[in-house]
Write a structure and sequence with these properties.
The structure is a single chain. Strand 5 and strand 6 form a beta hairpin. The protein has one domain: Thiol Ester Dehydrase, Chain A. It has 148 residues and is mostly beta strands. The chain has a six-stranded antiparallel beta sheet with strand order 1-2-4-5-6-3, with helices on one face. It is globular, with a radius of gyration of 15 Å. The chain starts with 33 loop residues before the first strand and ends in an 8-residue tail after the last strand.
């Protein structure tokens, strides 16, 4: 990871157009994460435009949700990061129009890396997918940059 390019320090640039959380992205998912001091959480109901196989949510959309939860967990822990490695385990297929909760948290943080985990669950608590990631820290600060 030593050869990674340095991203610009302006992490708020175009963040309102983020595919997963950007409120001004007309085709985005528009998730809004809350933070309880340990974990981030957001709710989402995938619809017909989020499917791969007919009636089932595309795995890439599910991965986007998990990746964003882990990124927000890192952000709320005080660092800006990029996903360097991500591993997802899909536990079951997911029908469209099923309300979901996605959660994420930091499991370990070093000077250059942050390790995270996330889960996607149905409203009844059934685990749909889980993921872990190693994220490369590119900017640390006392107050994380969060756009509301």
């Amino acid at each position: 990871m030593t050869n990674w390019p340095r991203p610009p320090a302006n992490t708020t640039k175009e963040s309102d157009k983020c595919f997963v959380c950007g409120p001004k992205n007309p085709i985005g998912l528009k998730l809004n994460f809350s933070w309880d001091g340990q974990e981030v959480k957001a709710n989402f109901t995938p619809g017909e435009y989020h499917q791969g196989w007919a009636g089932l949510v595309h795995g890439g959309i599910m991965n986007c949700l998990l990746d964003e939860a882990m990124s927000y967990a890192a952000l709320y822990s005080g660092v800006n990061s990029l996903t360097a490695r991500m591993q997802t385990r899909f536990k079951r297929s997911l029908p469209i129009d099923e309300p979901l909760t996605v959660t994420g948290s930091v499991t370990r943080k070093t000077r250059r890396l942050v390790e995270t985990k996330a889960e996607l669950k149905l409203a009844d608590g059934t685990l749909v997918a889980e993921s872990t990631a190693t994220m490369f820290i590119f900017l640390s600060e006392r107050e994380p940059r969060v756009n509301a």
